[in-house]
Amino acid sequence: MKATEFLRAAEAWPLEGLEALLPEAGPVLLLSPHPDDESLGCGGLLAQLAARGREVRVVLVSDGAASHDSRLYPPRRLAALRQEEMAAALAALGLGPERLVTLGLPDGAVPQEGPGFEAAATAIGGLALRDGATTILAPWEEDPHGDHLATWRMARHVAGDLGLRLLAYPVWGWRHLYPGMLAPVEPVELAAVPRGVRLDIAAELPAKRAAVAAHRSQTTGLIADDPGGFVLSPAALDVLLRPWELYLDLTP
């Protein structure tokens, strides 16, 4: 089945609640490749977990410093800004700054293999062990972005080593169905058809919108000296700010 066909079918899955997605009450470890992926892909889920007092930790994998080429916001300042935005986004979802851990890997060059990959996976595994996590989440392996794929591979590695449940969430993977979000992508044939849950987040959608808006560098013209810098398009936000989120169970 092609990714396009799968996503179109998944949009018609029945809406389900948190209990269907995470029937166990164990801690959750969520990997976000960049500051904003946590809100775009999982804002509703994070708000639900926070409201129910569930243990969750969010790991920011990259420093986010490659979204703009700006003299006003050189890489170090941009990375600091984006981390501040992410903390504000998590606060909008009901999570304190103690829930956030940053790895600081280079935006646009998160390693997919080799020593850097192994070191990052080891750090993530250590966090999972410390928290007693039972579930790890990462972007879908069909998200067309190298950092997303690297983050997915880290999650898969840790899940396999520690016997964790592995869930994937699409962010840019929705481009297979909605190319207008950014640009068309090459057709992808899925090796297997995933199972999963279409999570009802209608009640949490206002909080998710607030979390996404907290990423001002990605949603406004805040960084005015780089008009060509990345900004989320209305078309992308229309897809990513729906009253449900999609999660795929890809447990090894």
TrEMBL record:
SUPFAM superfamilies linked: LmbE-like
Molecular function per GO: hydrolase activity, acting on carbon-nitrogen (but not peptide) bonds, in linear amides
Name listed for the protein in its UniProt record: Uncharacterized proteins, LmbE homologs
Domain of life per record: Bacteria
Pfam families with a match to the protein in the record: PIG-L (PF02585)
PANTHER family: BLR3841 PROTEIN (PTHR12993:SF29), N-ACETYLGLUCOSAMINYL-PHOSPHATIDYLINOSITOL DE-N-ACETYLASE-RELATED (PTHR12993)
